[in-house]
Design brief:
The complex is a heterodimer of chains A (225) and B (236).
Chain A lengths: L8 E7 L5 H14 L4 E5 L4 H12 L5 H25 L3 E5 L2 H10 L4 H7 L8 E6 L2 H9 L20 H23 L2 E4 L4 H15 L12
Parallel strand pairs in A: 1-3, 1-4, 2-3, 4-5
Helix pairs in contact in A: 1-8, 2-3, 4-7
Chain B lengths: L20 E7 L5 H14 L4 E5 L7 H10 L4 H25 L3 E5 L2 H10 L4 H7 L8 E6 L2 H12 L17 H22 L3 E4 L4 H19 L7
Parallel strand pairs in B: 1-3, 1-4, 2-3, 4-5
Helix pairs in contact in B: 1-8, 2-3, 4-7
Classes of the chains: A alpha/beta (225), B alpha/beta (236).
């Protein structure tokens, strides 16, 4: 078997916190399972092997832009080489809640060099489809902030000294992350979805696009005899 | 002060005002790096220089996690590679740069070159590695303890009466025989170091001699660096 014989499909969802992408990928996952497809779901920053180090670094605010970026790349590499790539080669549809574009956006806001980031993730495949859940910044902020959440230090970009007020820091940080995402839309040909629509409408569109771009019959579970 | 970064400094790191010097000792396992750093440090302190020592897997951030991952041997080479890079940059930003800002002499027991050599031997793309470490600080000097495989083997067996899994490159599947694998792995690493030595202008030191002979050699060369880098009356 040739090394590059990848018969699976790689689908990623990206967008700001509060864009509703996790709900959408969850519903997509359920749908594909109900159709009997071979599907695998994986989340950003979830590898057990590096979780402990990430947790420690975040809790104690030990991370710099560079180590923040590298520790997430380590996590990603672990999941990519042990799960994502083998699943793709095994003919699965792999769904990723956030992919390298999350790093490209956040880490660039933290000052990491864009070319350096792209080279860092150069080992990873560009997905077949990247859904970008687009919505106005104020709407995204409202969704997150109306619940009066306990914003986390790095999540709010507090390490960047944007504002001593964590909520204000979060607003500025998210605005900059949004700008980075927008610049990637043409660069990577993101598929745009209007995240202001209700959940059901969005999901209808997601399924319609998937159905059109992927021959799902090819991904039905084989009978394991 | 000629301190500079290979391509660019990491974000938020001010490359100005680094008045100290970074001296790296590279070499294969059992080449005597730690022994010599252990001798050079007190010697430098006696001469009135503040010394900071760094090495691999010593970062506060991931040093311990990396040690554990290595025991389990379940990480892919690329994951290992990135884990080591995280460890490296954590020390660069939190130990090396602050020490150099304070005018100290930093002694590094291995540096990015060992990491690069190990990864290239495991099939990593050299251009990817170069980019990964493009924000590393260029050392004032890299000493390479050039030691024959026979000497290395004798020292390893004498000290431990066994061969180490990683130092024998057992993860590469070169041979099921540990001794055989050790020799093959050491040969590949040695070839990789030789090519890095050329590319990055290492000063090669004959590591087959006695500890005191190598120590005298290193001191004489470091004296010259100190005269050049810390001219009389220089300020931090």
């Amino acid at each position: 078997m040739h090394e590059s014989s990848i018969t699976g499909k790689l689908i990623a969802v990206e967008g700001l916190d509060g864009s509703g992408k996790s709900t959408q990928v969850y519903l997509l996952h359920q749908w594909l399972i109900s159709l009997g497809c071979r599907v695998y779901f994986t989340e950003w920053n979830s590898s057990t092997l590096v979780k402990e180090a990430t947790r420690k670094g975040k809790k104690r605010q030990l991370l710099t832009p560079t180590t923040f970026s590298l520790i997430h790349a380590t996590d990603f590499a672990d999941r990519y080489e042990r799960q994502i790539l083998p699943m793709l080669k095994g003919g699965y549809i792999v769904l990723c809640d956030r992919y390298m574009f999350t790093s490209f956006a956040r880490d660039a806001v933290r000052g990491c060099d864009k070319a350096w980031l792209r080279k860092l993730y150069g080992f990873a495949r560009v997905p077949d489809i990247v859904f970008y859940f687009k919505l106005p910044l104020e709407t995204a902020l409202g969704r997150i902030l109306e619940g009066r959440p306990e914003l986390k230090y790095f999540e709010a970009g507090m390490d960047l000294d944007l504002s001593p007020d964590i909520e204000e820091s979060f607003r500025i940080f998210q605005g900059r992350v949004r700008d980075q995402y927008e610049s990637m839309v043409p660069e990577y040909g993101f598929t745009l979805l209007d995240a202001t629509l209700n959940v059901h409408e969005q999901q209808k569109k997601v399924r319609e696009i998937i159905g059109r771009k992927i021959d799902l019959a090819k991904y039905h579970q084989r009978k394991v005899g | 002060m000629a301190n500079r970064f290979f391509k660019m400094p990491p974000p938020q790191v001010d490359p100005a005002k680094l008045s100290g010097i970074l001296i790296v000792i590279e070499g294969m396992d059992s080449s005597g790096r730690s022994t010599h750093i252990g001798r050079l440090a007190p010697w430098l302190e006696q001469k009135g220089y503040a010394v900071v020592q760094v090495g691999l897997k010593r970062s506060e951030l991931v040093g311990q996690a990396l040690e554990q991952a290595k025991q389990g041997n379940v990480l892919s080479p690329r994951t290992m590679s990135l884990f080591y890079a995280t460890d490296f940059y954590d020390q660069l930003e939190n130990s090396i740069v602050p020490a150099l800002r304070a005018g100290s002499v930093v002694l590094a027991d291995r540096y990015i070159f060992t990491l690069m050599a190990r990864d290239v031997v495991r099939g990593a793309d050299p251009a990817w590695l170069e980019s990964l470490y493009s924000m590393a600080l260029v050392p004032s000097t890299v000493f390479f303890l050039d030691t024959s495989w026979r000497t290395l083997l004798d020292r390893t067996l004498k000290a431990r009466a066994s061969l180490d899994y990683w130092e024998s490159g057992m993860d590469l599947g070169l041979s099921r025989d540990w001794f055989d694998s050790y020799l093959k792995y050491q040969r590949r690493m040695s070839a990789e170091f030789k090519s890095l030595a050329k590319k990055y202008d290492f000063i090669t030191v004959n590591g087959n001699r006695s500890v005191s002979a190598v120590d005298r050699d290193l001191r004489a060369q470091i004296e010259q660096i100190l005269i050049k880098e810390y001219p009389a009356g220089s300020k931090a």
